Amino acid sequence: MKQLTVFIENRIGRLEEVTTILAQNNINIxxxxxxxxxxxxxxxxxxxxxxxxxxxxxxxGFSAMLTDVVAVKLVHHFGELNRLTNTIxxxxxxxxxxxxxxxxxxxxxxxxxxxxxxxxxxxKAKGDFEVLRAVDVYNL
Length: 140
Known about the structure:
Shape: globular
Strand order of the largest sheet: 2-3-1-4
Number of strands: 8
Radius of gyration: 16 Å
Number of helices: 5
Distance between the termini: 15 Å
CATH architecture of the largest domain: 2-Layer Sandwich
Largest sheet: 4 strands, antiparallel
């Protein structure tokens, strides 16, 4: 699935500019993560229309790009995240970053790994984890 990454200056109103552009283009934000890197922030979003969002933001002067990520459904049990991270790391795949998405009873972890394709194959083959498609995440 595609994640939208936007680099924004750490100043008042800059995040609002991003959300305004997305709203004006009828693009829904499904999940959002913002991290501070000093003078800039790294905004990671799952949106309803990734390509259109990237284009609209780029045309408005933002540095935006699409990145492949892995979405995995997790059940609410003690140790599930540990079991997931152990499965991935014990197979030689590095987790670069992650963030969570939850709606009601369902939850998902969004992962960027050193080898997303291999990570998906591994999790599907193991059968203990459900790798989600974009439509599944958008409908959580």
